[in-house]
Design brief:
Chain B: One of its GO terms (molecular function) is transmembrane transporter activity. Chain B: Keywords: Amino-acid transport, Cell membrane, Membrane, Transmembrane, Transmembrane helix, Transport. The complex is a heterodimer of chains A (259) and B (296). Chain A has 259 residues and is an alpha/beta fold. Chain A has 11 helices and 10 strands. Chain A has one domain: Rossmann fold (3-Layer(aba) Sandwich), CATH 3.40.50. A 6-stranded mixed β-sheet of chain A has the order 6-7-8-3-9-10, sandwiched between helices. Chain A has a 4-stranded antiparallel β-sheet with strand order 2-1-4-5, covered by helices on one side. In chain A, strand 9 and strand 10 form a beta hairpin. In chain A, helix 6 runs parallel beside helix 7. Chain B has one domain: ABC transporter involved in vitamin B12 uptake, BtuC (Orthogonal Bundle). Classes of the chains: A alpha/beta (259), B mainly alpha (296).
Chain lengths: 259, 296
């Protein structure tokens, strides 16, 4: 099957730092592809480069294609309207707007927003329509951030650390939602929680020092204890942790500096 | 008692003038991160546009509907200039702060020079309806009608901007963009259109300030916009970048402090107090009264 996204020789320099140094990988047209690596290796930078959010002072080279379409140098709003959904790290909901206004903002002209689908996945968003997004809990904000993107049809979803900082119960809920979402649209996921990765991901791309260090089957990677330990910096006991279904707040990839 | 009421209402008139200039300045900075030193030019265009229209445009004049038409012409001219400035000069320079500052400072100087070259450096008498030269008795104070007109106009503009921000799609985009512009684009919205819109709104409000400021002061001069802009910047910083309501509160505080201190203290001391107030706000609450929120 043709990949939904192909990234070739992607290099990103920001303020003199060569963060990505020729990254190449593909995203399968179904299921979840997870982008792994220790903190600071360029996972978020990769997602932001794909969606055109590299800072103006940054320099991006290489090729990014969604189907036959080249994505580089196209403005972010056009990429998103073209079916590239983006859920950023730290949710980025509009704290001063209500939940309903956050959702209304995501509506696209000429399309019918899928409120039924979003409220079926997140009934709480319907009940809290008049509440300011800034007063929601972290988990509710994450649901709003995901719900905002699911209002529209997407060809690919980019989801950056959706379980970061969430309580174990909420991590399970978010993982369940992403599992259901991935049944209808491919997802490129950045995730530190290996239990969630084990539950959701089919393919894995591991970055190390701005380069692709490993690609392949995600479950295979997690079974290779020594390899996982060397690539992600987690202990063997953590890698061998059970499935996310029972213990969602599993081990996290070692944290270093952050971009 | 009459003196206090007179000072309060003339202070509010001054506050209204500051608010009309500051509201657009605040929205432009809050949404687009542009510190627009050329904002005073829009005020100058509005003032001179109204002055010129009242004397030359068929149907326009210093009285009745003719004056309304002249003000509408001045506001339209200021809005058009604001849109052109955004599209031609600012848009290529987004994210290049230093260049933006240089261009807008240069444009403000060039604008004043152009007005001087065209109509001279001296202040000119402003055509205004007779009733604006008269006073209205309020609780024993004889308050100039020109000041009351400014207060009414500012309240209407505040209401209109808040209704626009609250009830329209573009208002929603602007409120969200003031919080997180990048995320607005990540939802598929071309935020540059909102930039042009806030420039147009700011230009219109500043041009109205120019026209009604002409009524208030009785004259129009090329440097009027620049001197008002200094206090408008102070109002924006005290009110909170991007907050229209914050600008309204700050304008009232600045206008009243200036008027009362200048009257009861030494002339000019009010201006110094306002700068002192700015320093205190920057030290204790650098985000301003309202912080970075587009509505409240």
């Amino acid at each position: 099957m043709e990949p939904v996204l192909s990234v070739e020789e992607l290099s990103v320099r920001i303020s003199g730092l060569h963060i990505l140094q020729g990254v190449s990988f593909t995203v399968a047209p179904t299921g979840v592809t997870v982008l792994l690596g220790r903190n600071g290796v360029g996972k978020t930078t990769t997602l932001r480069a794909i969606v055109g959010l590299t800072p103006p002072a940054g320099e991006v080279r290489g090729t990014i294609r969604m189907g036959a379409q080249s994505l580089l140098a196209r403005p972010t709003h056009r990429l998103v309207r073209g079916g590239l959904g983006y859920v950023p790290e730290d949710r980025c909901v509009f704290a001063g707007l209500t939940v309903a206004e956050n959702l209304r903002l995501a509506e696209r002209r000429g399309t019918t927003p899928a409120y039924d689908k979003v409220f079926a996945l997140f009934p709480e968003l319907d009940r809290r329509g008049r509440q300011r997004a800034g007063s929601l809990s972290g988990g509710q904000q994450q649901m709003l951030a995901i719900g905002r993107v699911l209002l529209n049809d997407n060809r690919l979803l980019l989801v950056d650390e959706p379980t970061k900082g969430l309580a174990p119960k909420v991590v399970t809920e978010v993982a369940e939602v992403l599992e259901r979402v991935a049944e209808s649209v491919p997802v490129l996921l950045v995730e530190q929680n290996l239990a969630v990765v084990r539950r959701l991901a089919r393919d894995a791309v591991v970055l190390a020092a701005g380069k692709v260090a490993w690609t392949g089957d995600a479950r295979e990677l997690l079974l290779e204890t020594a390899l996982t330990k060397s690539l992600l910096g987690v202990g063997s006991a953590e890698v061998a942790a059970p499935s996310a279904r029972s213990e969602p707040a599993g081990p996290a990839v070692a944290r270093e500096d952050q971009h | 008692m009459g003196t206090v009421i007179l000072l309060a209402l003339t202070g509010l008139g001054l506050a209204a003038l500051y608010f009309l200039v500051a509201s657009g300045l605040s929205l432009v900075f809050g949404l687009a991160d542009v510190l627009n030193f050329a904002h005073g030019l829009f005020l100058g265009v509005g003032a001179y546009g109204t002055w010129w229209a009242a004397g030359n445009l068929p149907g326009a004049g210093p009285d009745g509907f003719g004056f309304v038409f002249a003000v509408a012409f001045g506001v339209a001219a200021g809005t058009l200039v604001a849109i052109l400035v955004e599209l031609v000069l600012i848009r290529p320079l987004y994210s290049r702060t230093i260049e933006q500052v240089l261009v807008t400072v240069g444009l403000s100087l060039a604008g004043v020079a152009l007005l001087q070259a065209t109509w001279g450096a001296d202040a000119r008498p402003f055509p205004r309806p007779d009733w604006t030269r008269q006073v209205t008795g309020i609780f024993g104070a004889q308050v100039p009608n020109g000041g009351l007109l400014l207060i009414i106009a500012a309240v209407l503009v505040l209401g209109a901007i808040l209704a626009f921000l609250r009830w329209t799609r573009y208002g929603l985009v602007i409120r969200a963009g003031v919080e997180n512009r990048e995320m607005v684009t990540a939802l598929g919205i071309d935020v540059r259109k909102a930039f042009t819109l806030v420039f147009a709104i700011g230009g219109a409000a500043a041009a109205l300030a120019g026209a009604l400021g002409g009524v208030y002061f009785g004259t129009v001069s090329p440097g009027q916009g620049g001197s008002l802009l200094i206090f408008a910047f102070i109002v924006v910083v005290i009110g909170g970048m991007g907050s229209v309501v914050g600008s309204a509160y700050a304008a009232v505080v600045v206008g009243l402090v200036q008027q009362f201190v200048n009257y009861y203290g030494t002339s000019g001391l009010g201006d110094i107090c306002v700068v002192g107030l700015l320093a205190v706000v920057l030290l204790l609450r650098p985000q301003g009264i309202a912080g970075k929120v587009a509505t409240a």
